[in-house]
Amino acid sequence: MSAREAILGRLRAPQVEASLPDVQAWYAAHRRAENPSQRVSRLRQALEAVHTEVHDTTNVGWPALLLRLAAAKGLRNLLIGDGTAHGRRLENCSPRELQLHRYEQPIEAWREFLFDGIDASLTLARSAIAETGSLILWPDHSEPRLMSLVPPVHFVLLDSSRVHADLHAAISAEGWDQGLPTNALLISGPSKTADIQQTMAYGAHGPRELVLLLLHPEGSQP
Amino acid sequence: MKQVIQIHPVDDFKQRSLGVLNDPAQRKNFRGAMDFLQSKRKGQFPDPDERESLRELGAAIRRYSLAHLPSLLEQLERNLTAQGVQVHWAQTPAEANDIALAIARLAGAKSIVKGKSMVSEEIGFNHAMAEAGIEAFESDMGEYIVQLAGEAPSHIIMPAIHKTRQQIAELFAREIPGVPYTDDVDGLIRIGRRVLRSKFAEAEIGLSGVNFAVAETGTLCLVENEGNGRMCTTVPRIHIAITGIERVVEKLEHLPPLLSLLSRSATGQPVTTYVNLISGPRKAHQLDGPEEVHLILLDNGRTQAYADEQLRATLQCIRCGACMNHCPVYARIGGHAYGTTYPGPIGAIISPHLLGLDSTYPLAFASTLCGACVEVCPVKIPITDILVRLRNEAMARPEEANLRGSGAARSVIGTAIWAVWSQIYGRLGMYKLASWFMSRGRALSPTEQGAWTRSRTPLIPAPKRLRDLLKDRQK
């Protein structure tokens, strides 16, 4: 008998009754009533509580803001995805001080440079979660997984209309149960550890800094 | 690389406990860490009604998942396989290690970089790999420190909780070539980051644990703060995930309550920095991620707990560590004294299934049954009831044995004493006679009364029985 059959065989008995818990109802009862702008400010508070920089900007204004922040942080270069609209926006600005690199080859071809030579990266978040201050990323070929992990500074663009109340709301609204991509991520702040004497240190293995550029509708007063 | 030697708790549990009790520095480390973790958790649950209803929901999800465990495991396997993940089943630690070794040999792997995985500790993974000439590197900062020191984790969430900043500084300066002494925490973390980054790049295989596996989508959920888990599951060509068979849930919507309970109970965070949902290997057009993903499902005695309705609740555990953080025994003796992979209250109730009750029963007795663990457990495991049950199992007669190692605490003398006791206390005439002799023969009471007199004065029967005193009063 295979290990699989032996294990499954031992799990067949005894049958214990347990009904399917109503998770939906729990969230419906505990979710606070709030308007979208209250949700956005809850997201901001939660992210700032875990050492994340949050900047309000617009779809027109973000490239200039990003270049200003990059200069202030002394960044030499920035990693962008291959063929993304926001990447092209930045390339069209053709910044002189900030060199742009595209993630266009498999990691095996340029691992050393990614690990040692890249100062920062820019990716898009598909949505976010107010309750826990989490950015939702579904990395794919245009913005691969390591973009949000290896460079010491990570810039994230988020449309402020895409903030869910909590993870349960995000899963139901976006239909995640219909199937997930190879990798889906929630990112809530820069990488950190408290493994040495419960003292918080940032930049453990991933980014030391997480910078959120929150995109508000044109002309709105954030 | 130093290897951790597996010790079994029945040997020297008391000696190890006494060792820590008599070490003020270690006791201070543990007390400080426990106070810190307790207050962090408390801060995350300001609303008792929300906390209690969420715990109820979490417990209901875990009970439901366990009730449907065999079919959920099959569904998980089906979906993962369809998405390109290879699923393996292991009944014992040796089988699990053999599966990993076969994958490593096929890949010609020389080194494995590891994210935090208690199941890998449970199966002695690093040791098994070292014997086969493959180096396994821990990459979680706490695990890295513990591995560098040649020790085992003393806490399931914070492995190096027993060490001070200065001890870690000395360790780094001694063990890492070219590193000067610094006890600045940021500086120490930078050193760890630099050393480990080269390991991520070199290793052919990344090993990780699994916090939850979701059957309906075929997804492995991993939570962490550091990013080393994401490194291990993304950079090396092969990712091997290993987990106990109990960590599966049916639906994706079961994750939010469990993740909330886990991070708030474990470290007092609303969420961990990273929640990593993995549903398959790298696709043809993708530029990073592992080409192969394997999942090893380990039994190692879990089916024994499953078979018993009361003990099955042990498998509801989501490994947050809150029970040990709030345990008056753990806070005083620390994790190493237990001698098991999982220490504290959860260690006392899960270890008998993994290692046998014969080598672990002293842990079930090392409890005041105060119930602090039950009060904080996010999935409401009745830990104290299970501890009492395990004590009874340890004393069970051979014909009532239910578990591997049942009856191990029975002794000839103990059994004889209780047999005499029940003869006396079960019959009025015998009781009267025996108590008469005891009160008159009190001068003959032994001054050495075993464990009782180690820290107490000897028990001596009263000169007059209650019965005699009452008789005197009625005169």
Oligomer: heterodimer
As a whole number of angstroms, the C-alpha radius of gyration of chain B is 26 Å
Strand order in the largest sheet of chain A: 1-12-7-4
The main pleated sheet of chain A reads as: 4 strands, parallel
CATH superfamily grouping of the largest domain in chain B: NagB/RpiA/CoA transferase-like
CATH class of chain A: Alpha Beta
Give a verbal description of the structure.
The complex is a heterodimer of chains A (222) and B (475). Chain A is α/β, with parallel strands linked by helices and 222 residues long. Chain A contains 7 helices and 12 strands. In chain A, strands 1-12-7-4 form a 4-stranded parallel β-sheet, sandwiched between helices. Chain B folds into 2 domains: 13-303, Rossmann fold, CATH 3.40.50; 429-474, no CATH class. Helices cover 49% and strands 10% of the residues of chain B. Chain B has 22 helices and 10 strands. In chain B, strands 1-10-7-4-2-3 form a 6-stranded parallel β-sheet, sandwiched between helices. A 4-stranded mixed β-sheet of chain B has the order 8-5-6-9. In chain B, β5 and β6 (219-224) form a beta hairpin. In chain B, α2 packs antiparallel against α12 (255-267) and α16 crosses α19. Chain B starts with 12 loop residues before the first helix and ends with a helix. The chains are: A alpha/beta (222), B alpha/beta (475). Chains A and B meet through α1, α2, α6, α7 and β9 of A and α2, α3, α4, α8 and α10 of B.
